[in-house]
Amino acid sequence: MTEEKQLCGWFVFNSGQVLIEKKADGYHIPYCTEPPVPVPVGSNIHTIGEINGLPAKTYAIHTPVSGNENSPRMMKDLRASYDVLPLEEYNRAGKASQILNWDRNSRYCPMCGVPTVQVSPIAKRCPECRQEFYPRISPAIIVLIKKDDSILLVHARNFRGSFKGLVAGFLEPGESLEECVYREVMEETGLHIKNLKYFGSQPWPYPSGIMVGYTADYESGTIKLQDEELSTGAFYTRDNLPEIPKKLSIARKLIDAWLEHRV
């Protein structure tokens, strides 16, 4: 008697793109009992929790699935998938991407070079020196700075596109999140801020981070941009905003909260 296969949600990735399918109600990840495309030799299938009450699994493929908007299936950049996938599927795709990034970068022990062994969904162990390795999450801060009826918007040189967003930066060893905010604002803009308040956080799987959001008030100083990081920066009122970040980001959530007078 053969064992009945279980329906699963599959997150199949190739170079930052996730496989999606066109259904009657829009796009979804594939739901099937077997992997939707062959699992390449050397790729591991990871279980990453549940999606819509079903097991969620992920693996990487070496060659993208061909297709476009007119095809039953196509590959979609993870960021762009936010615009077409249900939110729960997009969020789980982010986790899947981070697990695959961890798997790819933890195949060998950095101390002794021995191949690691996966011992849990988010843990690997070196069989030689017994060190354990977990997915690394890189914390970063992002801050909305208010000055009277305006906010500071900047264009970072690493932004994808021409939009203007908020000052952000990675946490450094030995500092608190709040210290990181003050340092990044001073380094990137030359401004002093006050009344720092926590806003919220957001997983940021590009490739494996978490964004911690704050609001603050301008205190003093003249904008002096850190040239290697920022190309432009200025204060903008509600009636003259430039292009701003898309809805998927906590930057946009901060800006929207300010537009609606909630912060």
Quick rundown:
17% of the residues lie in helices and 38% in strands. With 263 residues, the chain is an alpha+beta fold.
Overview of this protein structure:
This protein has 263 residues and is α+β, with helices and mostly antiparallel strands. Helices cover 17% and strands 38% of the residues. β9 and β10 form a beta hairpin. It starts with 7 loop residues before the first strand and ends with a helix.
Q: Regions with pLDDT < 50 over 5+ consecutive residues?
A: none
Molecular shape:
globular
Using only C-alpha atoms, the radius of gyration works out to: 21 Å
**Could you tell me the mean pLDDT?**
95
Structural class estimated from helices and strands: alpha+beta
Order of helices and strands: EEEEEEEHHEEEEEEHEEEH
Please count the helical segments: 4
Could you give the count of β-strands? 16
Largest sheet: 7 strands, mixed
Strand residue content: 35-45%
Distance between the termini: 62 Å
Summarize the amount of helix as a percent range.
10-25%
List keywords for this structure.
globular, alpha+beta, 7-stranded mixed sheet, 17% helix, 263 residues, single chain, 6-stranded mixed sheet, 16 strands
Q: What's the SSE blueprint?
A:
Elements lengths: L7 E7 L2 E7 L2 E3 L2 E2 L13 E6 L2 E7 L12 E5 H4 L5 H19 L11 E4 L2 E3 L6 E2 L4 E10 L2 E7 L10 E4 L6 H13 L2 E13 L4 E12 L9 E8 L12 H10 L4
Parallel strand pairs: 1-6, 11-15
Antiparallel strand pairs: 1-2, 1-4, 2-3, 2-7, 5-6, 8-9, 9-10, 11-12, 11-13, 12-16, 14-15
